[in-house]
Amino acid sequence: MKKILIQSFATLAIAAFLAGCCCTSQNTGKCNTGKCSCCSSCSKGNIKESSFGTLPDGRAVKLYTLRNCKGMEARISSYGGLVISLTAPDRNGKYADVTLGYDSLDGYLKETPYFGALIGRYGNRIAKGHFTLDGKTYTLAINDPPNTLHGGKVGFDKVLWNARPFQSGIGQAVELTYVSKDGEEGYPGNLNVKVVITLTENNSLRFDYTATTDKSTVVNLTHHGYFNLAGEGDVLGYEVQILADKFTPVDQTLIPTGELKSVEGTPFDFRKPTAIGARIGQDDQQLKFGRGYDHNWVINKPFGELGVIARIYEPTTGRVMEVSSTEPGLQFYTGNFLDGKITGKGGRVYNHRNAFCMEPQHYPDSPNQPNFPSVVLKPGQTYKNTIIYSFSAK
Ligand code: BGC
Asked: With the C-alpha atoms ordered 65, 69, 71, 72, is the resulting torsion angle positive or negative?
């Protein structure tokens, strides 16, 4: 009996494989053939390209809708490489948008705290907008006084990217490319940047960043999604785990002091899953400086190795988000500056702590901190960074 069952299963599996059915074979490449009758949403040519409006100078902005066989959907804009929406399943298999943002381009053009944005050339803060490289001091725009934040006044989140949708071996993807000119926002070197955003068949949104330069420069790219796994409300009940024994304490302008401090016995110890709200209100100087969590954790795993660095669980819907990265640090930010003044998608008001951000990256102010892992990119080298947000439910 057992033998017959095994044989039948093997026959079915081979039949499914030959038919190119991605629902059972996991072989997403088969979707490319258009043979997938059971999951036509991922068949060839199905990456929807539509208009997302025009920029004030008349240039057209495109919106790409990526889908996978399971029913997950991500919408990516060629302006700012923004993730406009991203759906994920709850424990009953119901998909809902788990990101904050706006319904239309106008909102992003008027005011955005980096909703869903592609961040560069240097993610996070550089103290007083200065750094010295090869003996020369560079001056950057101060857009978060007294510091520069997320690339300056016109960071990579506010430029139009060249976009090319394609079906990759692991899912539907958009390749974004941009040349950041020598001197743009004060940074040296023409920087050629490529970011591939893929919605994979195993419910992950994956970012693969590469960059090259013609002059020594500094690079630190990341993704600035604001996540709300329940679809609404604050995030204080979410359980967070961060695989880090240390963090980088900051001064009151959120610039690291240079110390790598143990999380032991502090509200920054997320080595075991802990509710965001459990200690956020404690009388702690670091929490006061950040108005909550707005800090960089020193990831335990070796820099450059792709692996899980954080997990977030939302108890009411059961949604789980797992963050993987190659980067040495993780900025965990709890939407402390959201204050109810922004009305976003579907007319929702974004109140204090209605989202969290998990931004894998290098440590803040690394260009001025000789003891931090280097962010210098030289001609002939290729900057590489991978970030994956994986969704499931329990
Ligand atoms: C920073 C916050 C900042 C936010 C801007 C985060 O990456 O850590 O300090 O307020 O971006 O929206």
From this structure: negative
The token pair at 45 is: 């040519």
pTM listed for this prediction:
0.90
Are the CB atoms for 215 and 189 separated by under 8 Å?
Answer: yes
Mean pLDDT of the residues in the chain: 91
Q: Residues of the chain with pLDDT > 70: what percent?
A: 89
- Residue with token string 């894998």: 360
Return the pLDDT at 17.
40
Ligand 1: nearest atom to the Cα of 359: 7
User: Is 331 touching ligand 1 by the criterion CB < 6 Å?
Assistant: yes
> Domain 105-393 carries which CATH code?
2.70.98.10
Q: Which atom of ligand 1 is closest in space to residue 290's alpha carbon? A: 9
293 lines ligand 1 (CB under 6 A): no
Query: Which residue from 82, 124, 149 has its CB within 8 A of the most atoms of ligand 1, so it is best to mutate?
Result: 149
Ligand 1 proximity of 294 Cβ (cutoff 6 Å)? yes
For the record, the structure tokens of 87 come out as: 């759906």
Within 13 Å and on the Cβ side, how many CA atoms surround 309? 32
CA distance 246 to 63: 39
Q: How far is it, in rounded angstroms, from Cα 236 to Cα 127?
A: 30
Q: Is the peptide bond before 311 cis (omega within 30 degrees of 0)?
A: no
Beta-carbon-side half-sphere exposure of residue 307 (alpha carbons within 13 Å): 12
Q: What is the mean pLDDT of residues 274-287?
A: 98
The residue ranking higher by pLDDT, 10 or 18, is: 10
- Give distance in angstroms: CA of 117 to centre of ligand 1: 12
Query: Does residue 333 have its Cβ closer than 6 Å to ligand 1?
Result: yes
Say if residue 293's pLDDT is above 80: yes
Ranges of each domain in the chain: 105-393
